[in-house]
Design goal:
The complex is a heterodimer of chains A (107) and B (120).
Chain A: E1 4-7, E2 10-12, E3 19-25, E4 34-39, E5 46-50, E6 54-55, E7 63-68, E8 71-76, E9 86-91, E10 98-99, E11 103-106
Parallel strand pairs in A: 2-11
Antiparallel strand pairs in A: 1-3, 3-8, 4-5, 4-9, 5-6, 7-8, 9-10, 9-11
Chain B: E1 3-7, E2 11-12, E3 18-25, E4 35-41, E5 48-54, E6 59-61, E7 69-74, E8 79-84, E9 93-100, E10 107-110, E11 114-118
Parallel strand pairs in B: 2-11
Antiparallel strand pairs in B: 1-3, 3-8, 4-5, 4-9, 5-6, 7-8, 9-10, 9-11
Amino acid sequence: EIVLTQSPGTLSLSPGERATLSCRASQSISNNYLAWYQQKPGQTHRLLIYAATSRATGIPDRFSGSGSGTGFTLTISRLEPEDFAVYYCQQYGTTPLTFGPGTKVEI
Amino acid sequence: QLHLQESGPGLVRPSETLSLNCIVSGGSISSGGYYWVWIRQPPGKGLEWIGSIYYSGATYYNPSLNSRVTISVETTKNQFSLNLRSVTAADTAVYYCARHLQGSDVFEIWGQGTKVTVSS
């Protein structure tokens, strides 16, 4: 099973700032099959990025993904008030499909 | 717009079977060639993939739960279901249903989740 570690656990930033979230895998992720999700209280999970770098439908271009192998990054170029949330990474290169523990981005 | 809604009891006794349904509205569960999935999140812990099902009934499960889980689909009711047998307190979690992104093991559309507590 591939174990995903996310850092930091909590990121305290202000609107307009840049957010950089890290996701590290215990072994190389096949085909860079790494996705990112956003979760806000009272809302359903939102798929942001898949295949490490591809934005899902309707996702603003301030969200970008990068990385390969065992190290991946989600970058939010300029935080909007609605971006304060918890972010999860997920690998789907190998079953079982696994998730990271999450990074909370707070004001 | 596709909408998924989980339903089922919020309290299950230890050793019994946890049964949940995911009702799909705004689209047909059997069109488009999508897989459908159950995911859970125990309190204070991360998300855990339980298993996925195609509209035809083909399934694949997390090996850690494989011996206790069955996911099934009822196309006539436009829903799919989760049965988890012999539950313990460790199965207490928020349970989510979702739809895969077409051709991928990524989850595009999620339900709100339903909290299930295992307790006597």
